[in-house]
Amino acid sequence: MANYPNQRLAWAITGSGHYLRESLEILQSIENADVFLSRAAAEIIKQYGFQPQLEATKHRVYQDKTASSVPVELFYEGKYHTLVIAPATSNTIAKMAYGFSDSLVTNLFAQAGKTRVPSIIFACDTTPELESEAPRDNMVKVYPRQIDLDNVAKLAHFEATTVVNDMAELTHAIHTRLNQIK
Q1: Are 120 and 149 in contact (CB under 8 A)?
Q2: What is the dihedral angle through the alpha carbons of 53, 106, 47, 62, rounded to the nearest 10 degrees?
Q3: Phi, psi at residue 9, to the nearest 5°?
Q4: Chain-centre distance of CA 105, in angstroms?
Q5: For residues 144-159, b (16+ Cβ closer than 10 Å) or e, as one string?
Q6: Which of 56, 64, 73, 158 is positioned for an S-S bond with 104, CB 3.0–4.6 A?
Q7: What is the pLDDT of the chain when averaged over all its residues?
Q8: How much is the pTM?
Q9: Rounded to whole angstroms, what are the CA distances from 132 to 4, 20, 31, 177?
Q10: Strand pairing partners for 162?
Q11: Residue 144 — φ and ψ, nearest 5°?
Q12: Confidence of residue 1 (pLDDT cuts 50, 70, 90)
């Protein structure tokens, strides 16, 4: 049985700049969270100049620095009530959709599922055409491939997994979950 008052929210970030700024803003408004960075996320946060925003969240930060993704053991210890992955690259989505767990973030998703911790995922590639922030505040047009869209759809059918398409849905899903555990 879950003991929500003593549990935290786990938030994983992958190597995408797509709505990274907005994801960090949401993260800053949340209490009792731990942040997990993929190797690419650690690079992208610095490349985009978002290190101060990450530090402003004042959350514990774990980075993908071990081959066996040691921090996933925190799920076995019952430390988390929810996993959020935002933003999630098409690479991470594909790996999760097909059951790969070869990185910190994909391992977190696998272990969340195995320990029955609900996941909320903001996938970067959810529409055939979108605008995305590139480094130095440039906006670029992005055209996800059909396989990227198919992988998002496949992942949306996983049990205890909510896939959201935009920041409004992400915010709503997180607040709905936080209200459920009060």
Answers
A1: no
A2: 50
A3: -95, 135
A4: 8
A5: beeebbebbeebbebe
A6: 64
A7: 92
A8: 0.93
A9: 35, 10, 28, 27
A10: 120
A11: -55, 145
A12: very low
